[in-house]
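Quick one, T. Sequence first:
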Amino acid sequence: MITIRVPATSANLGPGFDSIGMALSQYVTLHCEPAGEWSFVLQKKDQPFIPEGKSNLIYKSALFTANQYGYDQLPAHKVTMTNEVPIARGLGSSSTAVVGGIELANQILSLRLAEREKLKIACTIEGHPDNVAPAIYGGITVSSYDGVNLESVRFSKELEQLTWVAVIPDYHVETEEARSILPAQLPYKDAVHASGMANVLVAALAEKDWPLVGRMMKEDKWHQPYRSGLIPDFPHVSKILEDNGSLGHYISGAGPTMIGLFHHAGERQLAALNDHFPNYQVEFLKADLSGVSASVSPALNQ
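Structure tokens:
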């Protein structure tokens, strides 16, 4: 019996488009045991969105990983999935599947993959590192991948002081749609300005200057000005977060989840936020500092 746990992730943090991401305290847990054929046992809420057979992204990622190391197939397993991460809401649900599948192959085949090897495989599958890097490493990661060269830096110090308030609408925004509305290019001066905001965000994270982190989250020029049109709730949610003391807020990944950053948030403050958002799912999250984890135990039927 193999048990794998993968954290949710939030990408971009404003101007860190396709590069910055963080792991959060929501999880996908996979209980995997040998079986006669591959199958995925899903919670009822996930059944309309996640395949139960070999078209499941977890299986496809596991098989891709096996292929990279000379294996044509994987021994069949039954995978029982417990999922806290909303599907297609901008909290890294697809990355949990990719990273979970890589770890599943790692455990089944005893590949003993280093974290960097896992990340390279995940980037090959996903195309960019913003969600998969924090899902593997935990904490906040700043990464770059051009199809060949891969670099990644992790931040973790003092993140336990922060609360990330995720305000989750009851509709989906598909990543493909959210990417299709982005411009093919930006004027040079605009790109320099947008890059500067991202640079300041990274420096503020390194210095643990949380108020500056919050301000930079709101200064994105890469994607939020375009994607906010897909999220009609954004102005309303942003105002409530600011009125209740958030340091900053941003669209998580492709959306529609919106996240507010709070430093040393108190119980009354969080309770007030809950009251302000009766029509949303509201999650009060912390940074996950561990990333993907796996444990092996004897099968329950033995």
